[in-house]
Specification:
Oligomer: single chain
Helix content: 25-40%
Number of helices: 9
Number of strands: 12
Mean pLDDT: 85
Shape: globular
Strand content: 25-35%
Structural class: alpha+beta
Strand order of the largest sheet: 7-6-5-4-8
Distance between the termini: 51 Å
């Protein structure tokens, strides 16, 4: 179950989002708040919540001074952030209600790492306080301890990741929440870099991997059969573009730094999605598929 405060943030974003560009007055917000939560809603509390939502989720609640009505600030980035906030947390909140109106009627995939550390990390992000974490990588049997400035959270393929500045490494790092053994705030305050943007940090990444200055590559793909329709509905990457088509196929491109996660993803649909270029990535996919065939006994 998500925290009570986070639940209120979600409710507030949903309420204001539902009014679109027309917006909603503070008087109506306060009235709806009192009806929903059984308590008054001072304007100061509302402004504090606006700041917390902006800091934690990048969702800006703005006021049109000519009408004194509040709305979710326009632009694709804020719309995506608002959708992410609602999609990621609202279903779980509804299913946790005691009345159980929808019990047995909604099926969702659990994200195991999200339940233990999310609220603590978001509180630290809001307060700009450093975190002390004990972390064990898959390839290491021994855990390590780090002091991290929590810049952002990223969700990818049913796993949550903490993105932050590691004081021991003196660099940006990404930590899978399900590999964190212990976590607490040390109370030390840091200054959030004004230029940091999590979407920009992963602009040419595939999955939760920082590129640390590596240049992206133009990757050309050919989708056969119904795979083209799947890619149109659910792009492989935000840079995906459709490049043309032929008899039974459609060509696409993405611009990313190739990594192991991309190779494995391409292997999943290798029968209907072919890497045309670069040749180095094509060879990595082929080698991975050959290894799989060998494990299944192909001579």
């Amino acid at each position: 179950m998500i925290s009570e405060l986070l639940s209120k943030y979600i409710w507030l974003v949903r309420l204001i989002s539902s009014r679109g560009e027309k917006g909603i007055s503070f008087a109506e917000i306060a009235s709806r708040w009192e009806s929903r939560f059984g308590e008054s809603y001072p304007r100061r509390s509302f402004n504090n919540h606006r700041e917390a939502i902006a800091d934690a989720f990048g969702v800006s609640i703005s006021c049109n001074r000519s009408t004194n009505r509040y709305h979710i600030e326009g632009g694709e980035d804020n719309e995506n952030a608002s959708s992410w906030l609602i999609d990621s947390f609202t279903v779980g909140n509804i299913l946790s209600r005691k009345d159980g109106e929808l019990k047995g009627r909604i099926s969702i995939e659990a994200i195991p790492s999200g339940h233990t550390w999310l609220t603590l990390i978001m509180d630290a992000m809001t307060d700009s306080t450093c975190l002390e974490l004990e972390y064990r990588k898959y390839r290491n049997s021994k855990a390590e301890k780090f002091t991290v400035r929590p810049y952002a959270l990223k969700e990818d393929m049913k796993r949550w990741y903490l993105v932050g500045w590691c004081e021991q490494r003196n660099d940006m790092r990404v930590y899978a929440l399900d590999r964190i053994l212990s976590l607490e705030s040390n109370g030390s305050v840091f200054s959030m870099p004004a230029s940091f943007d999590v979407e920009e940090a992963f602009a040419t990444s595939y999955g939760p991997y920082l590129n640390h200055g590596e240049k992206g590559s133009l990757i050309r793909l050919r989708a056969y059969g119904t795979q083209a329709a799947y890619l149109r509905d659910l792009p492989l990457h935000r840079t995906q573009e459709e490049k043309g088509s032929g008899d039974g196929y459609v060509d696409f491109s993405i611009f990313v730094v190739p990594n192991r996660q991309l190779v494995l993803e391409l292997c999943k649909t290798a029968g209907e999605l072919e890497v045309l270029a670069p040749e180095s990535l094509r060879e990595q996919v082929r080698a991975q598929l050959e290894q799989g065939l060998q494990r299944y006994g192909r001579k």
